[in-house]
């Protein structure tokens, strides 16, 4: 296998084309370490935050392998959602890589090595016809396979029934095939590495990923703190009867700015909550829900809905419009939208009640601020909405101090409040004394009333009335 010097030279050559695509030829140390591990045949678990450039790892892996061996190379990438596959195919095309979705490819072409990147769901890749092609020792697919990559790999725990519930039992499997991906190893050439990529995985999840994917004991782990400094966290508890009033900010933004209002995703935990939020916004906005206002057709509606039961054609249309600077500005969605999809310019994430798990909470937060600009994660909830949440989520929204620290503590216990404090979270803004132009919070109208509330809930010297909703655990 290549030594370090030849690897560095091959990587430099592989990076040389990036400026032509408007990208920097300098990659992060964690990306380099991940590529190095896979090139040298080591299994890899890479826990890297949203927007870090995880897909560049397998894109460059192909090029480095080809440079070092002077032979063709290919990578299989397992993706949980069709929307992620479509995004990856688009990105691969821009990078100049030959790529296909296994769902639409001619299997013989895949076996014969026509593609450098093969994207597939767990169900597709574990189907007997593909496994028969993969195990043919003389085929280009078998010989040239540089790695199997599992993208969004935390779902091998959550979707395969490997995560413990609050009662100590294992969760019900949603898609069992993701729990069987370790079987792929027996069909590959000996020494073919397995790579797992994710943006959110605590220690328990990391151990589950290694176990389910049958990773070797010497598996390399590449980790970067999930702390995204451009995100500001706001948490506001309200009573159920006034929760909808918290959408007044959004209504005002749409009425004032129309098609130029900041892109926002509202995450709801149930279909009923989606219906309530959408109906309220339509009622409050009137004709302002359309752009232009006189054109009252669905295509000109500023609002859009996304959930797992939507028609695939509807999902594709919504995603395509929301990625561009089009009419769709407010997207009301379930957790079906919390993985992989790259919206570069979302400014607000509103959680209509916190996510069920802390991993989902961070996945949903990961849809905003991917361009590096200051963005906001706003959790608005009433007591009944935390009843089905994991304990880590309850601890987060009920924190007696910095919400940033509370949000990340299970993923990175070293994280501290962000300076200046008013840029950190809704609690820290109440104790910030920097005197800066934005320290008074006047640019954060959605936090009106939060300062008094935060001081009350975060101070042992004050008491508050406990309602029946508050008693829900």
Automatic annotation (TrEMBL):
Recorded hits in PANTHER family, A to Z, give: DNA HELICASE RECQ FAMILY MEMBER, RECQ-LIKE DNA HELICASE BLM
Q: What is this protein called?
A: DNA 3'-5' helicase
Q: Per the record, where are the segments of Basic and acidic residues compositional bias?
A: 452-473
GO CC term (a single one): nucleus
EC primary class: isomerase
Which InterPro entries does the record match to this protein? Answer: DEAD/DEAH_box_helicase_dom, Helicase_ATP-bd, Helicase_C-like, P-loop_NTPase
Q: Which family does it belong to?
A: Belongs to the helicase family. RecQ subfamily.
Residue span(s) of domain Helicase ATP-binding:
35-219
* Enzyme Commission code(s) on record: 5.6.2.4
């Amino acid at each position: 296998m290549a030594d370090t010097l030849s690897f560095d030279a091959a990587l430099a050559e592989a990076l040389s084309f990036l400026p032509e695509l408007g990208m920097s030829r300098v990659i992060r140390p964690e990306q380099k370490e991940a590529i190095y591990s896979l090139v040298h045949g080591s299994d890899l678990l890479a826990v890297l935050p949203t927007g870090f450039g995880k897909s560049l790892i397998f894109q460059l892996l192909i090029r480095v392998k080809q440079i070092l061996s002077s032979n063709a190379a290919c990578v299989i990438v397992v993706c949980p959602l069709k929307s992620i596959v479509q995004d990856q195919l688009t990105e691969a095309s821009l990078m100049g890589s030959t790529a296909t979705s296994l769902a639409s490819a001619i299997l013989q072409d895949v076996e014969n090595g026509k593609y450098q990147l093969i994207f597939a769901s767990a169900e597709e890749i574990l189907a007997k016809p593909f496994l028969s092609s993969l195990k043919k020792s003389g085929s280009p697919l078998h010989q040239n396979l540089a790695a199997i990559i599992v993208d969004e790999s935390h779902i091998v725990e959550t979707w395969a029934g490997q995560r413990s519930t609050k009662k100590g039992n294992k969760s019900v499997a949603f898609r069992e095939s993701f729990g069987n991906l370790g079987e792929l190893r027996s069909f590959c050439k000996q020494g073919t590495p397995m790579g797992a990529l994710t943006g959110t995985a605590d220690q328990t999840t990391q151990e589950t990923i290694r176990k389910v994917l049958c990773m070797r004991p010497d598996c390399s782990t590449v980790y970067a703190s999930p702390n995204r400094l451009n995100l500001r966290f706001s948490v506001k508890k309200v009573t159920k009867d006034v929760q909808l009033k918290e959408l007044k900010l959004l209504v005002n933004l749409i009425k004032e700015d129309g098609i130029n209002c900041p892109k926002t995703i509202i995450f709801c935990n149930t279909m009923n909550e989606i219906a309530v939020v959408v109906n309220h916004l339509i009622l409050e906005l009137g004709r302002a829900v359309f752009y232009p206002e006189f054109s009252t057709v669905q295509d000109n509606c500023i609002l859009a809905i996304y959930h797992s039961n939507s028609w695939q054609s509807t999902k594709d249309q919504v995603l395509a419009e929301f990625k561009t600077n089009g009419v769709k500005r407010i997207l009301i969605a379930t957790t079906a939208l919390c993985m992989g999809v790259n919206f570069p310019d979302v400014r607000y994430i509103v959680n209509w009640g916190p996510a069920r798990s802390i991993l989902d909470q961070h996945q949903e937060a990961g849809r905003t601020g991917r361009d590096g600009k200051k963005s906001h994660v706003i959790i608005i909830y009433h007591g009944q909405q935390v009843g089905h949440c994991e304990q880590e989520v309850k601890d987060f929204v009920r924190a007696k101090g910095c919400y940033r620290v509370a949000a990340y503590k299970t993923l990175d216990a070293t994280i501290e409040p962000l300076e200046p404090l008013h840029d950190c979270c809704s609690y820290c803004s109440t104790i910030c004394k920097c005197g800066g132009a934005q320290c008074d919070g006047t640019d954060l109208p959605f936090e009106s009333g939060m300062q008094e509330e935060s001081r009350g809930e975060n101070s042992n010297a004050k008491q508050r009335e406990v309602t029946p909703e508050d008693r829900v655990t």
